[in-house]
Amino acid sequence: MRVKTSNGKGDISQIPEPTLRRLPGYLSFFKALKINNVEFVSSGQIAANFKMDSTLVTKDLSYTGIKGRTKIGYNVNLLIETIIQFLDFNSQEKAFLFGVGNLGRALIKYQGLKSYGLHIVAGFDIDPDVVNITLNDVKIYPIDEFRDLSRKLNVRLGIITTPDAKAQDTADLMVAWGIKAIWNFTPQSIKVPDNIIVENTSIYSDLAVILNRLNNS
Amino acid sequence: MRVKTSNGKGDISQIPEPTLRRLPGYLSFFKALKINNVEFVSSGQIAANFKMDSTLVTKDLSYTGIKGRTKIGYNVNLLIETIIQFLDFNSQEKAFLFGVGNLGRALIKYQGLKSYGLHIVAGFDIDPDVVNITLNDVKIYPIDEFRDLSRKLNVRLGIITTPDAKAQDTADLMVAWGIKAIWNFTPQSIKVPDNIIVENTSIYSDLAVILNRLNNS
DNA sequence: ATTAAGTTGTTAATAAAATAACAACTTATT
DNA sequence: AATAAGTTGTTATTTTATTAACAACTTAAT
Fold it and tell me: In this model, does residue A9 exceed pLDDT 70?
């Protein structure tokens, strides 16, 4: 039996992105519950914590295939295991990171990402000051070595934390050497072939929302 | 004349959040055009760059009040100025940052945020190893001094980059001492009074989307 | 000067997600 | 054992965002 089918008919790829985005938040909440020795949690309690509608919670959770028990709620341990499984957070997906500036360095050093399925195996930069150094067991290489390492390690995911102006060149290089998914932390829109997955993380968008709410309310 | 009204009738707070989130991306693109000495850009060109519909571009831009000229397009310099004005990216909003770990340190050091309207004026932590150090002219204080500094500097925005378990306590402290908006980088959902603005930045959500697309396609 | 191409910007239609309503079920209590 | 309370999970409605269609306008070319 596949865990990743929601109802036996549809496939997981059908999951709405908003739902997918909420799952890590649920997971964090459930982990906190576990620490406090809470064994069961109801959709109503979850909804209250996130100030959302309980039907939306049950809808979201139903995509993972987990079943709750009426009058009891969901088993917290099972919730945690199921969501981790569903999100592939135990997969230790290998990743290359390009651009070892402040942000890149933080991502490499940030151990928390490991428990969310991401394992950065190498960094790349052109700056001689950072090339060949090691951050938390992650070595930084010159760009030239990307080709060989890519062939050796078979990495599918590339992270862009370069200066904005270098984002497109970096993406081109990644695509050329077999990267399948790109996580772009620059505000630049990058152009890649259709079969390449691109996810943009724009803290500037979040900042725009904050400043707007702060100055217009 | 107020720049921030889209049509004279509505107020800016009416702007849809998706539009607001796209504006920084446009801005980055326009800045790149300016560097390449491009003077005018049409909605079609913008749409092509972001692989989106041109009508959505014109709709988004119309919220900022800017007018394009048919057969010519939008003036790039004016676009840049207008969007910066509209998003308050020249406001140098003061912010306190709590939790000077890897991510917090990166945000403090990251100069790029200054051109997007954010000015982190102080950091706070409990770890004696970081307290009293200075990162890029930003001093790190013990939590005890938050109260006095808050009163002195009149800061409205607080950033949470603490460990997950400390997120709620930190938020409570911020609210108690007059912070109006909280930028939460932990995956924890924090509970605050209704009048407090909360923006959650969850890189785990982005990661969930990437891993899902990578493993189901 | 007139025409035609191409763009903006508005209005309408479609698609998607969040909310609301409801039905079915299960467990604890009387 | 029967009832009632409370929860899950489905279906329907409303709201919101995106896409599509269209009208008006402006500039360049004939």
Answer: no
